[in-house]
């Protein structure tokens, strides 16, 4: 298998096997979860394919299979199922093993305000960076809608899950962006990103990770 395929397999094995844990019972949420994953994938696969066409990023043929759909290798398609599933699983475990997190925590909205403000302030400075602009706008719109319209009581759980999921995110995305290989599995055009990186990961990817976790959670919780 390709390196990218091995990463996806390693990411899904644990969460999938533990989905039937009696306390978490993650499988009971599959219907809403997979609807959320499908909507999330529709958005980001369209974005992903367009960005490949625009040269914003691309995939190293040494680390992916040759078969491509809509300009994307099969492994990239699997990414939009595997990563949201594994990430939302972290959220579900928190909710199951720490019932106090289910209590309303309105003050947690300050984190929403802070992130929205930071992204809004940063946008004008990087308006010529396509990945930065699209990524930030989607995150701003989603966070603003939830903060000012929906006002969900589970945002505290989300932010804790987001922070925890950054550990596997940094490992997986680090490998994909060249932390352990001579060249990256996924390369980025220097003209379309800010350029600041955490190890080898573009800083924008942390904002993408936020949206990619928050949208499936919102849809899953909305459909409960």
Task: Supply the key terms.
single chain; 224 residues; mainly alpha; two-stranded antiparallel sheet; 7 helices; 62% helix
Secondary-structure blueprint of this entry?
Blueprint: H1 3-17, H2 30-54, E1 57-59, E2 68-69, E3 72-73, H3 74-97, H4 109-122, H5 130-150, H6 155-176, E4 186-188, E5 197-198, E6 201-202, H7 204-222
Antiparallel strand pairs: 1-4, 2-3, 5-6
Largest sheet: 2 strands, antiparallel
Assign an overall shape: globular
> Which strands sit side by side, in order, in the main sheet?
1-4
Strand content: 5-15%
Q: Considering DSSP H and I runs of 4 or more, what fraction of the residues is helical?
A: 55-70%
Question: Radius of gyration from the CA trace?
Answer: 17 Å
Q: What's the helix-strand series? A: HHEEEHHHHEEEH
Low-confidence stretches: none
The count of β-strands is: 6
The number of helical runs is 7
What distance separates the N and C termini? 37 Å
Mean of the pLDDT scores?
Answer: 92
Structural class: mainly alpha
